[in-house]
Amino acid sequence: MTIFEQIDPDLLYPDSDGKPMADNTEQYRWIVLIKENLEILFANNDNVLIAGDLLWYPVRSRLITPTAPDVMVVFGRPKGKRRSYRQWQEDNIPPQVVFEILSYSNDTKEMERKLEFYDTYGVEEYYLYDPESFQLDGWLRQNNHLNKLWQMDGWLSPRLGIRFQTGQGELVIYRLDGQRFLNSLELNQRAEQAELLLEQERQRTEQLAAYLRNLGIDPDNLP
Asked: Average per-residue pLDDT in the chain?
């Protein structure tokens, strides 16, 4: 057994890079919005892993500095808890889609390093959004490299099946069924509205049953 194998892998590959998940409320809002709506979108597919701010180790080497995408999507890996994404323990499948939300602390050099990292280690789609300027940039893997997309308004993600709309200011993301990505408050309001409609339907059904009984008709034995 080599010395390398005797060392605790958790010491070799720590689960945190010491950086906060978000620097401000806008960055956090967008990370949560994208991550949670993708969770909903792929809720019935057990082999799509979606994670936010999870440290990704692409290779088993301490010479390669890992990175933690704001949101990453991995097709072909089961849902479940992860302390980090160690690719050699995940059938060597890299995240196919990553999102980054710009914050005040992100400088050009850091974002260039991230783009190079994603290009080198197999990301198929990379989206970078600046919530201050409403600027959305995207890259798609072609000929084994991430190439910039020059038209993002109306762009449809090949992997995710979601559409980006940038022409009205702030980014809006739509599912294939036309439903836009909703925040937690909007999702809760929609659930409450659906509950209210079900309750109204139940009351109408009970009123109709009571009316039929008054006519001497058993509603439970209708032909």
From this structure: 86
